[in-house]
């Protein structure tokens, strides 16, 4: 009498069922990790775009220069205008030329306009997309926070001390940034 040993059909079916449940659970877990990674990546891209836009804006504001006549920073109709100097060229040498910079919100995109005072060519750069709301305000010691600057054209209103930017873009509901202006210090 030779007795054969091995697995029965019932044991094989149970083992296959357990293996398929483990495989299905692993696939669901992997699918969840991929979905989470995609959401985190999208959030990171939005945050990087916002940080880059605010860094460019802050650099321009901190390099604002006071012209011989007029204001270094003007604000009106939702547009910020300023003159800046000390821009860096590709060789990282300081430039002596001044540039006119303007920021304007058009159809949900924050645009940066740049023009050298010596050249008529205007460079237009999309700075931040999916902007739902944008508000600019300037602070002056005598006038407080103002949404237009200067309030009376032609009259010297002094120099503003700070710029406030409040915006909603992408996944970020309300971002508020205050930048001290060099001319108002």
Verbal overview:
The chain has one helix at residues 9-62; strands at residues 73-76, 79-84, 99-106, 109-116, 122-128, 131-140, 144-146, 162-169, 172-180. The chain has 185 residues and is an alpha+beta fold. The chain has one domain (47-180): Pili subunits (Roll), CATH 3.10.610.10. The strands form two sheets. It has a five-stranded antiparallel β-sheet with strand order 1-2-3-4-5, covered by helices on one side. A four-stranded antiparallel β-sheet has the order 7-6-8-9, covered by helices on one side. It is elongated and about 115 Å long. The mean pLDDT is 85. Belongs to the GSP J family. This is Type II secretion system protein J. InterPro entries: N_methyl_site, Pilin-like, T2SS_protein-GspJ, T2SS_protein_J.
- The poorly predicted ranges are none
* Proportion in helices: 25-40%
Molecular shape: elongated
Oligomer: single chain
The major beta sheet can be summarized as: 5 strands, antiparallel
Average pLDDT score: 85
**What's the arrangement of strands in the largest beta sheet?**
1-2-3-4-5
| Integer tally of domains | 1
Instruction: Give the distance, in angstroms, between the N- and C-terminal Cα atoms.
Output: 104 Å
Provide a brief overview of the structure.
The chain has 185 residues and is of the alpha+beta class.
